[in-house]
User: Fold this.
Amino acid sequence: MNKAKSLVSITDFDVEEYLKILELAAKFEANSYRNVLNGRVIASLFFEPSTRTRLSFESAINRLGGRVIGFSDIETTSSTKGETLHDTIKIISNYCDLIVMRHPLEGAAKFASEVANVPIINAGDGANQHPTQTLLDMYSITKTQGTLSNLSIALIGDLKYGRTVHSLIMAMKHFNPTFHLVAPPELALPNEYKTILKENNIPFYEHTDMSSVLNEVDIVYMTRVQKERFSDLMEYEKTKNTYILRNEMLAHTKANMKILHPLPRVNEIQQDVDENPKAYYFEQARNGVFTRQAIISYLLQLNV
Amino acid sequence: MGNIQGKQMVVSAIQNGTVIDHIPSKNLFKVISILKLENIDTQITFGLNLESKKLGSKAIIKIADKFFMQDEINKIAILAPEAKLSIIKDYQIVEKKVLTCPDQVQGITRCFNPKCVTNHQNITPKFTVIEKSPNVSLRCEYCEKITDFEHFKFI
Assistant:
């Protein structure tokens, strides 16, 4: 029996598959309520809490006419009795057609995909991967720009630990982007990703100040600079206000420019930006439901 | 006595078997453990902290009446990439083998990432070798983090 195809890491899909997902997501946006799951059962296993991601998935499943089983709190599971992840996944995969899982340990979803005989969708494994976020980012980019190709993208904030940034680079490298990397030196993009950019002949420019970049780019991808990431708190105090986006900074940006953020935001995008038509992060979250409908349909090979 | 004539042997010669030379001194016992030499009942002799122009300090192991399969021996390539293997028959070197670092490594070292699932559950760590020389570095198949040569923790 062929192993069911899972989505654990953004690199599990190739370019053709990215485009297929985006095409399906557009179909679901046009008509979101389609009973293609027809009562099939999807397990939603959240070993650590994440309200938005979980509800986005559960909304996607419900719109597809599926049923959800699962948990959103590890305290209610047998893991607290010492059951191994192997056994939990092995058993639950007998009860459902697909598993959506979030787990605090990195690599947990990959391991689950080896154990389960149904597809696994990784809804976040620690600081490692969150591929459905990347696909919804790509859907948001293509929807607002009309294309994924030849775009100029500013990645701003925590580029060292930000998994969404790393995955977005891995996915977008196929579409000839230009990256502007804006981060404090302590949170600069790790060398392994710079090497990947160089190997793929993708131009990238490093900055510590976002003001010089904003007017040049098509996409501003903001992330949160977290205090706990700094070993030197003096450094944090010095830089914390450098990575805050304010409405007045958008006056001379390109007409097509859109601001994305994986959310939750704290103060890195000031609330006065929300009313600006260039703010796209709430619609981006809405796009997440359509993208997840697309991913579930694709992995289960449903006729849409 | 062929290739060894005229040299003073620090570790005595074997009649038949395998000689593994140019092992970095600090990794000798790890090599012994990976090759499971503790389970072999033929004569094994080794020298440690021997002078080496290339490595500074090297170790050598001579195992009587034991011949390794290539994939078995390749396991030590991540520890001793410069190691040379000689097959000895009747005190003569009949074959020299070069180690080839494997593309995948399984069950030899732990993942460096404390948050990796393999460090919390009973899972055999698996890696893709992403750099083979001068020092080996490994990407975890599970958490995708890189463990470099200095952070190997052998199982």
